[in-house]
Amino acid sequence: MDKKYRIKDAFLEFFKKNKNAVYLLPILVVVLIIAIVVFINGEIYIPASNINLQDQTDNSPVDGHDGITASNTIEILPKIERSEEDKKNNSNIISNSSANPFELPMKVTGVVIESNDKSIAIIETAHTSYIVKVGDFISDSWQVRNIEENGVLLVNGQKEAHIPFDD
Fold first, then answer.
1. Which residues contact 17 (CB under 8 A, 6 or more apart)?
2. How many domains does the chain have?
3. What is the CATH number of the domain that holds 156?
4. CA end-to-end span of the chain, whole Å?
5. Whole-number Å distance between alpha carbons of 48 and 35
6. What's residue 22's pLDDT?
């Protein structure tokens, strides 16, 4: 019996000396219980590597999980060339390497000016948006030569074209 009381007294003495432990130990126990429950229940987290969206063509749930369908896609940004979804069938006009981007209405919708040729411009056509810097190509033929506050200068061989910035 004396041993039992010594252990109890040791715990009481420990908690008297360490008053923070009175609050921290129960919180630690609760956090550990939550962590164990999360690790045991594997359906809370579905790794993206386990879902293969390209092999499936229907919109049925993937691996029996509701809300994740085969039509979901993952895009990694920054994406330099963006096509509009509803005009996706017509975007092959722009993607052709010999296509002239000036055959369609083209405008500069945004410019970020920085020193050391690190400026960025957003150029939009009817079907595609391009995020470009000096030296980048548009439609594999027109190269961005210069980005200024008032527009962008494009070069294709001996041809030059200046697209003004529309505020």
1. none
2. 2
3. 2.30.30
4. 87
5. 21
6. 85
Same domain for 154 and 87, yes or no, is: yes
* pLDDT by 10-residue block (mean), the chain, 167 residues: 77 86 91 89 57 49 52 64 55 46 72 81 82 85 87 88 80
Q: What is the dihedral of CA 74, 78, 80, 84, to 10 degrees?
A: 40
CA distance 52 to 43: 17
144 and 96 in one domain?
yes
The C-alpha torsion from 146 through 147 and 151 to 157, rounded to 10°, is 30
Residue 112 DSSP label: E
How far from chain centre, in Å, is Cα 44?
22
Helix (H) or strand (E) holding 163: strand 159-164
Range list of β-strands (E), 13-106? 81-83
CB 101 within 8 A of CB 138: yes
d(CA 78, CA 120): 12
> By residue range, what is the domain housing residue 32?
2-64
Q: Is residue 70 a part of any domain in this protein?
A: no
Alpha-carbon distance of 146 to 148, in angstroms, equals 6
Side by side, the strands of the sheet bearing 107-112 are 81-83, 128-133, 120-124, 107-112
